[in-house]
Amino acid sequence: MQQRAILFCAVAVFIGIWLIWPSRAPATPAEAVSAHFFGSLTGSTSTVPTAADALFTSFTNAASSSIDIALYELNRESVRDALIAAHQRGVAVRVVGDNQQVASIGNGPFFAALAAVGIPIVTDDPRSSLQHNKFAIFDRTVTWTGSANFTNTAFSRNGENVLVITSTTVADIYTSEFEEMFGGTFSTAKVNNTADEAMVAGRRVQIAFSPSDGVEARIANALQTADVSIQVAMFAFTSDPLADALIAAHQRGVAVEVLLNAVAAGAAAGERDRLCAAGIRLRVEDWTGTLHNKYAIVDAATTSDPLVITGSTNWSASGVASNDENTIIVHDPAIAAAYAADFERLKAPISAAAFGCNLEDASAADTQLFLPWLRSPQNNQSPAATPTAVVGATPTPTPPPPSFSSCSTMPDVTVVPNWPVQIMAVDKVAETVTLRNAGAIPVDLNGWVVCSITGGQRHPGISGSLAPGESRVFTNNGGPIWNNSSSDPAALYDALGRLISFLAD
User: Fold this and answer.
1) Going edge to edge, which strands form the sheet with 421-427?
2) Residue 329: its pLDDT value, please?
3) Which of the pair, 306 or 17, is modelled with greater confidence?
4) What does the buried/exposed string (b/e) look like for 366-394 if buried means 16 or more CB atoms within 10 Å of the residue's CB?
5) 292 has catalytic annotation
6) In 27-159, where do the E strands start and end?
7) Is the CB of residue 70 less than 8 Å from the CB of residue 181?
8) Facing residues of 210 across strands?
9) I want to staple 501 with a disulfide (CB 3.0 to 4.6 A). Which of 106, 215, 389, 492 is the partner?
10) How many whole angstroms separate alpha carbon 149 and alpha carbon 453?
11) Span 308-366, pLDDT tens digits
């Protein structure tokens, strides 16, 4: 009996201690930064779940108190459903969106589904600038940011990147920006009221928001630190100051390489031709997906402060001066290495026929600069896939001065810009010429001239308007002009007499 009493007392004391022992808060997750890369780059857009879906839903499912998300587009079912499920289990979900996308045909129903269950949505209405962020904050601890919209194309096909940062300090910085927008303050009405950087797992992380935080200058400053290399994968690139920073780096011996989106690369204000003229190695993707990244890698695989610049910000005037955007710079050799590997992934499927400049020929003894506009047809049909190399030549991306005198005069092919219209093919038997508008705006061809150089004659019927991306076959309805028995190159001149394109034979 005495032993039972002692045992009972011991148990009672243990229970009492357990009841009054102070409760401990859940341990804060270890700080970390991880990089994630999406997109098959080929095929068609898919609704089949991918690694992107699994990653995002893992954070929404784990959230216990709050999810704040600032997004531009939303048409991915998994994202919509994960946010609704979190809301329904008691997590405070808040959304900041773009007024035009919230009302659009493609995205509107997904935003409406969130609103229908009581999730609050604030937009930048009535501003014409974009609320272009793509970030989310989970439980004020984990931050998701990058180039990826919450869409089918982003989660399945496009070239995209996302950083996931586990840090309460970084989460607080992004939350401050979110609160400003959720309170109704957007674009140029915002002020620079957030911390500029944090230390995460011993690594420096810099953060800036457009348009209030001088983003363009911060990106330029990061590029200026390059000692060895810069690699850029960019959707829209129209910023003169950032192009200047790349050109300056190239001129001081830094190896600069640029990948551009196929559609945006040809924009009237695009930097593609300036970079090519400066001697920078550049390719334009031609895979079926879209290069939607907005990142740069500085000094990967070196000890010279490797860093990555990424976020939602295109290198454009609107990206830095009017849109609501975020830019993050991570100083970390492992993150830089991961992005450098993705850069190679993006570059690998670009075909030999795609636009490129200053591409080195490893088999040549001398450095060669490739002129992607100098084309050579095979068997009098389509142009050769591989551009002709001209040793020591420098591409001239803008049209040269007027030079047309007669169709029998051989033009100076080292200055052909092939912009905005290209001669794609000449069928000398069928007497047809195929022209393609590689630009982003329609081109009025009235007054333009296509010459048969050997025959010394004009190809009749070049007129009308050529839409962006359009290829059209122009038929010769007169007598034969193309010399079918010997070499007969073709030259294209605009209405001012400037040489635009040349097709060797």
Assistant:
1) 421-427, 432-437, 471-475
2) 98
3) 306
4) eebbbbbbbbebeeeeebeeebebeeeee
5) yes
6) 32-38, 66-70, 92-97, 121-123, 135-138, 142-146
7) yes
8) 325
9) 492
10) 50
11) 999 999 999 999 999 999 999 999 999 999 999 999 999 999 998 899 999 974 333 33
Cβ within 8 Å of residue 405, ≥6 positions away: none
- Is the Cβ–Cβ distance between 328 and 174 less than 8 Å? no
Residue 364: burial class (beta carbons within 10 Å; 0-12, 13-18, 19+): exposed
Task: Summarize the confidence of residues 230-253 as an average pLDDT.
Answer: 96
From the list 36, 132, 190, 294, the catalytic residue is 294
User: What angle, 0 to 180 degrees and rounded to 10, lies between the N-to-C axes of helices 215-223 and 240-251?
Assistant: 10
Radius of gyration (Cα) for the chain, nearest Å? 29
Does the pLDDT of residue 101 top 90, yes or no?
Answer: yes
Rounded to the nearest 10°, the torsion over CA 160, 264, 133, 101 is -110
* 3-state DSSP of 203-257: EEEEEEEECCCCHHHHHHHHHCCCCCEEEEEECCECCHHHHHHHHHHHHCCCEEE
Question: pTM for this one?
Answer: 0.70
Range in 45-49, 168-172, 354-358, 466-470 with the lowest mean pLDDT: 466-470
Residue 294 appears among annotated catalytic residues: yes
Give the contacts of 362 (CB within 8 A, at least 6 positions apart).
none
CA–CA distance, 480 with 463 (Å, rounded to integer): 19
Q: 326: which 2 tokens? A: 């975020």
Of 134, 190, 250, 292, which is the active-site residue?
A: 292
